[in-house]
Write a structure and sequence with these properties.
Bound molecules: zinc ion
Distance between the termini: 19 Å
Helix content: 25-40%
Strand content: 15-25%
CATH class: Alpha Beta
Largest sheet: 5 strands, mixed
Number of helices: 4
Order of helices and strands: EHEEEHEHH
Strand order of the largest sheet: 3-2-4-1-5
CATH superfamily: Peptidoglycan recognition protein-like
Structural class: alpha/beta
Oligomer: single chain
CATH architecture: 3-Layer(aba) Sandwich
Length: 126
């Protein structure tokens, strides 16, 4: 595993969103359902997306060898989301110690997702 890639759902910050909803949106785009492996609701609740053994669909040209985690919201995230995210990342790093924690925009310069500096955030909390 090379990358743990953090995304945002690009949904309004004041709106709760579930993995099931995202799954429905992605299906209606004609995709194979939710493209992320994990989803973190505004409440901080962790939900499963695709199983890890199934390649994700979340980052152009880098889906192979990456795990995608998506946060509900657009550019402000809750403290509970931050704590859940730290927990998921730490569990993944136990299994994939060489994986790098990055934001979507770090791998695709045309994107701003997830609208914060993931590397700086991770350095500050890990
Ligand atoms: Zn993204």
């Amino acid at each position: 595993m090379k990358y743990i890639v953090i995304h945002c759902a690009d949904t309004p910050n004041d709106r709760e969103v579930t993995a099931r909803e995202v799954h429905g949106w992605h299906l209606s785009n004609g995709w194979n359902g939710i493209g992320y492996h994990y989803f973190i609701r505004r409440s901080g609740q962790l939900e499963n997306g695709r199983p890890e053994y199934w390649m994700g669909s979340h980052v152009r040209k880098k889906n192979n060898g990456s795990i995608g985690i998506c946060l509900a919201g657009r550019d402000e995230f809750t403290e509970k989301q931050s704590l859940t995210l730290q927990g998921v990342i730490n569990q993944l790093l136990d299994r994939y110690p060489n994986a790098e924690v990055v934001g979507h925009c770090d791998l695709d310069s045309r994107k701003t997702c997830p609208n914060f500096d993931v590397k700086a955030w991770w350095e500050s909390v890990k």
